[in-house]
Every structure is written in structure tokens, then in C-alpha cells.
Amino acid sequence: MATAYIGLGSNLAEPAKQIQLAVDAIGTVAQSRISAVSSLYFSRPMGPQDQPDYMNAVLALETELTPLALLDALQAIEQQAGRVRKGNRWGPRILDLDIILYDAQVINSERLIIPHYGMTEREFVLLPLAEIAPQLSLPSGELVSDLSKAIATNGLKIYGKLQLN
Fold first, then answer.
1. Structure pTM?
2. Which residues have a catalytic role annotated?
3. Burial class of 143 by CB neighbour count within 10 A (0 to 12, 13 to 18, 19+)
4. Is 113 among the domain residues?
């Protein structure tokens, strides 16, 4: 079994509900089991500010799926939620599921980059990740706890708890 860390984000169609539905759906992914889920966080959008604020969380998933099979499963969940992939990288979205880490693997392919690019500069990834895995070491050797202490919070706030079914 590998441990994958998944970032969840939404800023459309009742974002807290979308994140909870995504957690529930990830809990049904074959050959996988959620082992931890962070609180739900309220964050400002990256990129254009003329869009709603985001809800974000991170979960730990024990899985036997390969990274690409997991990516396919997550993209199917996004599609079921109504996500339409557009060229606008920083625009609003109903659901965004990203593989942040997959064990200590480093992957740089056309479809998947792990560790997720920019994760060390994103408070809405690092702080929820530190909540559930503070002693986690990145492939670079950096500790999540150290990175999370050094990052600006940019107004990030805990919104509430998510449920594991």
C-alpha cells in the first residue's frame, strides 16, 4: 500500500458540500482507504480575485492503485461533480482534486507531476497537510511541519470539520 495525499478545493455550488461529497466519493475508490482528513479551510482564490473564495482540505489515502490509476479515479469524481476542464488555470471550479504526494515518489510526466508543483508555496495545501501529517518528509527532505511554520497564512481560516463515512 502507498500513501497518497490528496488536495481538495471548491469555490462553486456550495463548496463545503462539494468537498464533503468528494471525501465520500474518494472513500469508495477501489483498493483504497482514507486514513486521515484535515479540517475544512476557507481561503482566498489564487489568480483572479473576481471569483468566490475557496474551501480546501487535504486527505491521506492508503491505496494499491498506481499514481495514474488514482489520477483517473479522481478525475472521474471531478467529472461526476460537474467539473468542466477549461484552459483557465486559475478560474472558479466546482471541484479540484490534486494528488499532492504519492509516497516518496517523484513523477514528472505529461499527465502528472508529483510532488504537486507549488505545494510548498500554498498555505491552503501546507497547513491542512501539516494538520494530518506534521512529521511527513517531502522527497526533497523538507519537513511539512517546518514548511508550514514558515508560510504566510494569507487569511486562511478553519471553517469546520469533515466527516469520514
1. 0.94
2. 83, 93, 96, 98
3. middle
4. yes
